[in-house]
Amino acid sequence: MNSSYSLSDPSLLASKCYVNGTWVEAASGRRFAVNNPSTLAKIATCPEFDAADTQAAIVSAREGLIAFRDTAPRVRARLLRRLSDLMLENLEDLAHIITIENGKPLADARTEVAYAAGFFEWFSEEAARIYGDAIPASNRSCRIITLKEPVGVCGLIVPWNFPAAMVTRKVGPALAAGCSVVVKAPAEAPLSALALAELAHRAEIPKGVFNVITTSENTALVGKVLTSHPIVKKVSFTGSTGVGKLLMSQSSSTLKKLSFELGGNAPFIVFDDADLQIALRGLMACKFRISGQTCVCANRILVQRRVYEKFLRLVVEAVGKFVVGDGLEERVTHGPLIHERAVKKVDEHVRDALAKGARLLHGGQRLDALGPNFFDLTVMADMTTDMLICREETFGPVAAIFPFDTEEEAVGLANNTDVGLAGYFFSKDISRCWRVAEALEVGMVGVNTGAISDPAAPFGGVKESGFGREGSKYGVDEYVTTKMIMMGL
Question: What are the catalytic residues (predicted)?
Answer without folding.
Answer: 261
